[in-house]
Task: structure prediction
Amino acid sequence: MHAREHVQLAAYLAVHAPTYLRGNVTHSPTALEHYWISSKCRLDRWGIRLKTHAQLLESGSAMDFPRFWNAARPVIEEILVSDILTRVWISVCVAHDRIQRESIAEPVARSVFLGHMEARNRALNLLLHGRGLEATMMVPLNRLRRRTERWTDMLLGYIAADTDVNSFGYDQARVREFGNDIRSERGATNKSASWTMLLETALEAFGSQLIGEPANADLNRDIATSVMASFGDELFSQNTVINPMWESRIIHLADDTQQLIEQLLSPETPIVEQQGREPSRISFPT
Result:
């Protein structure tokens, strides 16, 4: 699974979760545990790969810099783009715990959120101080950073319209502004239309300029299915786009948790060589 699919999931959660959570919602301790373990595995992989890439850039020759940066780019992009779901998810968990007056989901999501913040800072530090980064890569990555920040604040606006989650955004004033706009437009646009519009916009915003092959497809899938299984199936079962991912949750939750724990001790070896990329068919707006 590519991180761009996490944006679709985040958009769906932002639009539909606040109202859903006000009903009789049950949580899945197993799914929350799988979310934490899968996220921890991915954080550890990111950490090892970022450290390896930093060492290669520090000790390598100038002629190897393009190859090193091409290998680092999928990891950096994945950290930036998947941060949207991480921040939306902790906001959903905070909303759940406040509505239910308990502390169950928020501590798990907050642990992952803090780890993701650290990974993002390390990735941005590599972009800022890494040797040999050419403008042809720096410019689109910086543009991607700004885009993910704005998308995060926009999606949090949907949740902020019901619960105070401004602190998880990048620009609290912007989150509040989006939240106010969403509250004022309620009734004029139904949730199905809002979700459809967000999906189409997400496909455009995170389409062709992202590397086609994800850095951690397996863990991205595990994280998504854990999120979708955490608060029951009714939230996702009626959606034709999200439902295929929801169905795979059965496989995810049937996996031996020990296999995920073992990944904490045995992350994949970073691949320095640039992999072949399949061009995306999604057009990207100028």
In short: Residues 3-23+45-211 form one domain. Confidence is low (pLDDT under 50) at residues 248-258, 269-286. Residues 65-100 form the longest helix (36 residues). Residues 26 and 225 are 16 Å apart (CA to CA).
